[in-house]
Amino acid sequence: MIKRLVIFVGLATLLSLQCLFAQRPIPMQQNTGGFGQTTRPAREVVEQEDQEDTDGRRPLLDDSTRQVYGPKTTLYFFEKDLKRNRLQLYEQDTLLRNFHNYDPVAKQGWKYQDLGNIGSAAKPVFYEIPEVIGLNSGFHAYDLYFRDPAKRKFYDTKSPFTEMAAFFGGGHRNMLDISFARNVNSRWNIGIDYNTLRVRKALNPIRRDDNMVEQNAYSLHTNYRSENGKYWLLGSFSRMRHEVFEIGGIIPPEVDTTSLYFTYEDAKVWLQNSRARDLRQDYHLYHEYKLGNGLQIYHTLDRKNQNIVFETDLTSSDSLFFNPDRLNDQQDTTQNRSDFAEWRNELGVKGSYKGFYYNAFTRFRNGRMISPFFPDTREAFNEVYIGGELIGQLSEKWSISADGEYLIPDAFRIHGLFKSPWLELEYTKALYKPTSMQQIYFGNHYQWNNDFDNIGVDQIKGRVILDFEKVSLRPNLTINRVNNYVFFNEERIATQASGEAFMLMPGLIATVQIGKKFKLDAEVVYTEVTGGGADNFRIPRLFGNTRFYFDSPMFDENVYVQLGIDLRYRSSYFAEAYNPSFQQFHLQDGFNVFAYPVADVFLDFRINRTRVLFKYNHLNSGFMQQDGYFVTPDYTGYRSFLDLGISWYLFD
């Protein structure tokens, strides 16, 4: 009854808003990124010392001597822009576009496969080239929920700035984000962020606070500029403790005839006494100094630590989920522990000459992986890189760039990018190392010690930019060739492919203005994988997102409203299964994650600087042939429930 009422109210509102409110239309935003992403306005850096008060802050007053601090006076920038000598200051985001997709997987356009809950293990749906071509830990299941300090926002605030966001999801799926920043003086800013997740189990919770995910994370950041502008320093620290109480998925009905899918809270699951923890700490420092004549030197320092733990009680029924092997002589409990740490130092020169930016660097990485069950306890590594970058800004809309790095003696990456007003082309060729976890692992249920070759990839991307009066189209094509790919096979063992895989991925991103107040956003990707290693990649052949919504100011432009429906779809495929004991996805051939369209209805609105969302998930539940859908073998997707969220800014 509630679902029918929601459908009726939503459709009636969509039809009536056009007639009831004859407000002027909002100009259509050009979508230059992926589905649901909009480029924010940016400003050039402006020197303001002559306009500052004695405390280093600019006295922004209107004609009535009332302070007018707001989104346009509290600006932020990114390290990558400063490093490339094209610093831009961005205003605070008050747009409603995609605001209702607040959880991390939805915010990424549903291009991650998770376990059907916020904070659960997740992997990209499509193949991605790793950012680090050298050795990394290999424990990436919770990367999506970690805020990398090297990619964070750095602020320039004219007043104390606070951003708060709280999201209360159906089924007790709660998120809280708080950020604070302020200028100590006109050239020095400091700030702190705090983020927390409290997400109850979607399957078989035994009490109200029986959480699947508990996360506490915080970060500190600062940026400083010398009085003459020659020296810049950016520093940040991030810490995340991400704890997951694993469920192992629903017990298949063929194993237990009393177990049923799509019973959610009443589902029978494998695990009740198993826990995974990912603790990360990351120190990051970037600073540069201008020597003169456009020449600069810079230094980047990173100190990263990742501590991975999985524990389970083998005297309970949880033992039935795992294979019978006890390889570390732990009969009563499994305690798989891994600790990965690294130091990274990059020293380089950079500058600009006749419209071209250049950069040359040397990077040193050293670190270790520790496990109490390794033969030598400690596996250490040392890596030396050389590389550089060249960017030519031919005009405001035309540019060409090339960058590369060489990991001595046997890994590399080269990358080129061409941009024009109507065409973008990108090419990447890389040879990168398998992860530390793929090379050596000594858990209580699985162990291996490998000597895999490096993985090779060639990737070509192209995108055509077509903008008309009310239609924006982005036809695109991605071609991948991957050889020596390392994956986890059906037996959950790290394996290296013997054949190549070729991926042909045409796609289309479109934005259409319908009338004055309605919009349609869509993205579709078709994937064809061939070659001897094709079966090692499990990607849905057809992937699509569509959003149709009303978008207009109302009530004399005091309220901005978006009301519509989201529809997402993946075709049937044998999605990878998840093994919590070593926190990896692996191949399987027995469970077809069938095709199923999922519809969500949403209402986003903004009053002044406050944004509010209402989202009803899985609107079409009960109207389909199947009772629900799966996101991963034995893990069901969202049931029908209502989400509420609010986000607001304070500027004093």
TrEMBL record:
It comes from the Bacteria. Residues 31-64 are annotated as: Disordered. Keywords: Signal. The keyword Endoplasmic reticulum does not apply. Residues 1-22 form the signal peptide. Residues 54-64 have a biased composition (Basic and acidic residues). Residues 31-40 have a biased composition (Polar residues). This is Putative porin. It comes from Algoriphagus boritolerans DSM 17298 = JCM 18970.
